[in-house]
Amino acid sequence: MSNTPTPHNGAKSGEIAKTVLMPGDPLRAKFIAENFLEDYTCFNTVRNMFGYTGTYKGKKVSVMGGGMGIPSIGIYSYELYSFYGVESIIRIGSAGGFADDVKVRDVVIGMAASTNSNFAAQYQLPGTLAPVADFSLLRKAVEVAEEKKISVKVGNILSSDTFYDANTEANDKWKAMGVLAVEMEAAGLYMNAAKLGKKALCILTISDHLYTGEALPAEERQVSFKEMMEIALEIAE
After folding, report:
1. Burial class (CB in 10 A: 0-12, 13-18, 19+), 195
2. With 60 as the cut, is the pLDDT of residue 1 above it?
C-alpha cells in the first residue's frame, strides 16, 4: 500500500473499492460513473485514464479505464491488485465475433483467454499457461444474465496483440479451435490475477462479426453495452 500514488494512478490508499470495473475506454468509465453510480468521486485523471469510486445499490464499486492492449491493462491491473488492495477486476468491453452462433449484441463471457501475446514469457514457465477467469465471478455473471434474460455465450476468447494482422489466415485458425470472439486485453488481466492470487473476469459485447459482416450502429452500441455493464455491477463484491 506504500506504493501509492503510482506513476499511472493518482489515487491514494483507500480511494478505490475492492471491485473495479475496467472498460478499455476511459470515457466509458466516466459514462458508467455518471449513469450507474451514486455519490461518485474521481480518483484518477493521470494520462486521462479516468477512475471513479461510488456506490451501486449500496455497494462500493470503482470503475477505471484500462486502455488498449495487454501492456496497458497489464500495468493498470497489476497496480490495482498490488498497491490498492483490489480483489476483483471485471473487464467490460467490445469484441469481434468469430463463432457462427455468436451474434451482434450477444454478451460473451471469457471462461478462458487464448492469446498471441508473449506476456506469459516473464513467468518462465515450463509449458504453456491457459489463462482462465475466476469461476465464482463467472458463475454469478451467468446467473445474473439468465435472470435478466440477456443472451450470453460462455467459452474461450482470443486476446490479440494485433488489430491489423498481416496473417490473413489467423482468424480462421482460431475460429476452427472454437474461439468465440476476439478482443485485446483479457489474457493479460487473467495472468496478473493468477500470479497475484486475485479474481478476474472478462465480459464482452459483440459489436461486430468478422465473418457475417454484421456490425452494431454507433447509436445502438450504448444501449447494448448497458446490459454488459449491469451484469458487471450486479456481481461486484
Report:
1. middle
2. no
For residue range 82-118, what is the model confidence (pLDDT) as tens digits?
A: 999 999 999 999 999 999 999 999 999 999 999 999 9
Cite the DSSP H helix spans in the chain: 26-36, 70-83, 135-147, 170-176, 186-196, 218-235
| Domain-embedded: residue 5 | no
Q: Which residues are documented as binding site for a purine D-ribonucleoside?
A: 8, 183-185, 207-208
pLDDT band, residue 217 (cuts 50/70/90): confident
Among this protein's residues, is 208 annotated catalytic? yes
> At 137, which CATH number?
3.40.50.1580
Residue 209 domain boundaries: 19-235
Is residue 1 in some structural domain? no
Distance CA 130, CA 108 (A): 18
Q: Answer whether residue 172 is part of any domain.
A: yes
Residues placed in the known binding site: 8, 24, 28, 47, 91-94, 183-185, 207-208
92 three-state secondary structure: strand
Q: Which of the 8 DSSP states describes residue 82? A: H
Give 43-57 pLDDT, tens digit per residue.
999 999 999 999 999
For residue 137, the 8-state DSSP code is H
The number of distinct structural domains making up the chain is 1
Distances (CA, A) of 221 to 80, 95, 106, 187, 196: 28, 12, 12, 24, 34
Binding-site residues for phosphate, please?
24, 28, 47, 91-94
Find the catalytic residue in 25, 101, 161, 208: 208
